[in-house]
Amino acid sequence: MKIIKLFVLTTVIFLFSVSAQAEVSTFDDLSLSPESYWNGSDGSGGFTSGSAYFNNNYTDWGGGTYSWDGFAYSNTTDTTTPGYANQYSAITGGGAGGSNNYAISFVSLDWSGTYDPIPTEATFDGSCPVSGAYFTNTTYAYLSMLNGDSVGKKFGGDGGNDPDWFLLTIEGKDAGGSSTGTIDFYLADYRFADNLLDYIVDDWTWLDLTSLGMVKSLEFSLTSSDTGAWGMNTPAYFTMDDLTPIPEPSSAALLLSGLMGMFAISKKRR
């Protein structure tokens, strides 16, 4: 009888573990050569990691020029080179928890005249609650905010007192496309009275997304205190890793019910 109990417990724990791990978008399930990235140049329009699909818009303008927005993935480790040429690196130098791959998102602006951000999107296989994900800055955005560049200002200004901020907003959408709520995460915040509290995120930070409830997709947008006539000046990038939906309990619950039924029958026969 002890053996049966142990078998039931071990099986349930194993299946719950496998189910949870299979759902997480770690981006390590995507093949990359060392110090490289995927940005949609194959024209596929996106990619899947775990149970989520990530959109990508890539345009080849010819002559070696291109543009992209949405999501890319990378394992580059350059944390010191400023500028657009280093747009695919995380300021952490790698993925969350020491992993290799991570996602990069570029949030494009509406160039038709509003210059508002056009959200990027991750869509799940089915509706589910989401536990959360890790977020941090790209090297490009981090160094732009820290030191300023030809477009973006140095956050805080020369005296360090400017109340600058860089904000990631995540909105949940249900299967019908209706909003389930939003969550804000400051990738940089210089609004404190005490300048010693000002920060630019430079490590992987876990963001709890459970309050969004049951979602079919997540939309990600960026805003900044540093804007001009053509919209946001801060480089509109963020990085993400380990996007973790919560597995639906139905299949695991049915399995547990069946195993417990077998256990009860065995006990009765005994």
Structure characterization notes:
By secondary structure, the chain is of the alpha+beta class. It has one domain (26-247): Sandwich (Jelly Rolls). The protein is 19% helix and 36% strand. Strands 1, 2, 3, 4, 5, 6, 7, 8, 9, 10, 11, 12 and 15 form a 13-stranded antiparallel β-sheet that branches. A two-stranded antiparallel ribbon has the order 13-14. Strand 13 and strand 14 (231-232) form a beta hairpin. The chain is globular, with a radius of gyration of 22 Å.
Beta-sheet strand percentage? 35-45%
Query: Distance between termini?
Result: 9 Å
Q: Could you name the CATH homologous superfamily?
A: Protein of unknown function DUF4465
Order of helices and strands: HEEEEEEEHEEEEEEEEH
Tally of separate helices: 3
Please tell me the CATH architecture by its name.
Sandwich
Q: Please tell me what the overall shape is.
A: globular
Main sheet: strands, sense, barrel? 13 strands, antiparallel
- Measured as a percent range, the helix fraction is 10-25%
Radius of gyration, CA atoms, in whole angstroms: 22 Å
Secondary-structure-based class equals alpha+beta
